[in-house]
Amino acid sequence: MNPLKTKDRGKHFGFLVRKAITDSKRHDIASVAKGTDMSYQSFYQRLQGMTPFSADEIRRLIAFFPDPSLVGYLLKGTAFVAAERIDPAPENHEDHIFQAAHRIVFEASDVLETIDQALKDRRIDHREAITIMEAIDDAERSLISLREFVSGMRS
């Protein structure tokens, strides 16, 4: 089935938002509701799938609570990939490039570590495949962020 033809009216997205907030150590449902200029009740209805998020609400949600899994879900099945913006002060370009390059190395080593852990029993099960894909997504976002930052320096 084509993942773009689902008719859940945002229920799965609401579930993902709730899971991301629950997994977060910095935010709770009330703080994200407030940060997105929504009442707790309205926000909770969206998390429960009773009311779909509007495009403006999704934009405010991602601006306040920039979880890559949410953007990845919205872009799944498209030709686009989410990338974080690197926005340094002009005098610190070299420092930011250096930090971004190191982040790529760390993300790539996380991919290798995840695969190594998964292959201890000489096979990769469904859960391990999901974990590996998440690590690859993180590494890919890091690479794209650096590429976009460096290409912006040419201007």
User: Distance between termini?
Assistant: 43 Å
Q: Which class do the helix and strand fractions yield? A: mainly alpha
Basic shape? globular
Residue ranges: pLDDT <50 for 5 or more in a row?
none
Beta-strand residue percentage: under 5%
How many DSSP H or I helices? 7
What is the element string, with H for helices and E for strands?
Answer: HHHHHHH
Largest sheet: none
Helix content: 55-70%
* Rg for CA atoms: 18 Å
| Count of extended strands | 0
Mean pLDDT: 86
Tell me what the structure shows.
By secondary structure, the chain is mostly helical. Helices cover 65% and strands 0% of the residues. It has helices spanning 11-23, 29-35, 40-47, 55-64, 68-75, 93-118, 126-153.
List keywords for this structure.
155 residues; mainly alpha; globular
In short:
The chain is an all-alpha fold. It is built from 7 helices and no strands. Helix content is 65%, strand content 0%.
SSE order and pairing:
Layout lengths: L10 H13 L5 H7 L4 H8 L7 H10 L3 H8 L17 H26 L7 H28 L2
